[in-house]
Amino acid sequence: MRASYEKQYDKDAAGWGFGHKYLDGDSVEYAMRAAARGNAVLAKRAANTLHNATALIDPVWGGMYQYSVDGVWKEPHFEKLISIQAVALREYSLGYAQTQNREELGAAESVHRYVTRFLMAPSTGAFYVSQDADLHDGQENESYFRLADAERRKQGIPRIDEHVYARENGWMISAMCVYSAASGDASALGEAQRAAGWIAAHRGLPGGGFRHGEADAAGPYLGDTLAMGQAFLDLYNVTGNREDLHAAEGAGRFIAAHFAPAARGTGFVTSATATDASYRPHPDRDENIALVRFASMLVLASGDDRFQEMGLEAMRYLAAESIATQPLSAGILLASEDATQMPMHVTVVGPATNPQTMALHDAALHTIASHELIEVRDPADRSPIPTKVTYPQLGRPALFLCTATACSSPVFDAGQVRGKIERAQLRVQ
């Protein structure tokens, strides 16, 4: 799989995949993980890809176009999907957290600005699906997207699809959490929380699941509950709000109850029931990748080992040669790492309202990585989340990097947190 990943990099255009150029989030994220471990080649490839993909960002309104044609980065198709915005916001935020490259922060800010201005419902805070590429169907639109804001608005604005789906909102909520952590933009976290609250109230199902739209003809679907479960887990990772963790746990239990494989190694299925005569519930590669990654983080966050088996079962399906060798490779590689390696566990021990505790927590958030649990443990908490780790009582707030059973030496100075985490990542194999 690593050999395939190497072959999937377009060295001439600098980016993963050939033909259409787009930002493949998994490929860049896997490269950034390797970069954190000292791989200079993949560090450069990740940086070059993120730089080149900025050509797909609308210089006027912000947001990322869907893709570019002809094997180059400068011939965009102008449609803007919420899924593309979520990938771009996440990867540029992770890139900035790792490198402190201001171009990557600027790209993330541009995507965030576009989404909140064009794809967020003013009355609810939930996120819409997409904005069309065409102002008028069938007409050439390149000249339109060369215009400044006022000139575009004089002609009109391409249609926005105002459907609100749980899956797409989950993707964007998760990305908003990563962006807020890396950038320190508190408004993004508030937007993520508002959207999550609306989706929970209007798309939630008994037992912790989520329906897709306002009235599903079939379903429920794995993608909606999985995306929202990950969204609540990401909210917990940033805020420490126990209610978000409970919502993520509920989603995990719903997935196990409704989408489990019929036989060992056959994968979690897309739908609980057949949607019509021609459709049979079946496993989806990308959804099982996302499920492995969700479960591996949830087991550590919750202390509930039952979620570990759920992730490993999804990984059994992905490990079959016929599934694993499909392009692209990075998603499988990320899932394999997440299934076999405990997330980096950053714990701040101290009173939640203590300024030093908050400073250490903020410093950890600013270095957020793709496979990392960040938590605050208040010694005064009467019902702490179960853990096998014994934390020392030091009399002042401290940050620790922890394994399953032990922790590092303490860090008391927020200015030393980035260096501590970077050195720990170099030791990961």
Note the run of SSEs as H and E. HEEHHEEEHHEHHEHHHHHHHHEHEEH
Number of domains: 3
Q: Give me the side-by-side strand order of the main sheet.
A: 5-6-7
Strand content: 5-15%
Instruction: Give the averaged pLDDT, no decimals.
Output: 95
The coarse silhouette is globular
In words, what does this structure look like?
A hairpin with a 7-residue loop joins strand 3 and strand 4. The two termini are 16 Å apart. This protein folds into three domains: 1-119 and 130-163, Glycosyltransferase, CATH 1.50.10; 193-341, Glycosyltransferase; 344-429, Glutaredoxin (3-Layer(aba) Sandwich), CATH 3.40.30. It has helices at 2-7, 25-36, 40-53, 82-99, 102-118, 142-145, 149-155, 166-183, 186-203, 222-239, 242-258, 285-302, 306-318, 321-324, 330-340, 355-366, 417-426; strands at residues 9-10, 15-16, 67-68, 76-77, 80-81, 130-131, 160-161, 344-349, 372-377, 398-402. The strands form four sheets. A three-stranded antiparallel sheet has the order 5-6-7. The protein has a three-stranded mixed sheet with strand order 9-8-10, sandwiched between helices. A two-stranded antiparallel ribbon has the order 1-2. It is mostly helical.
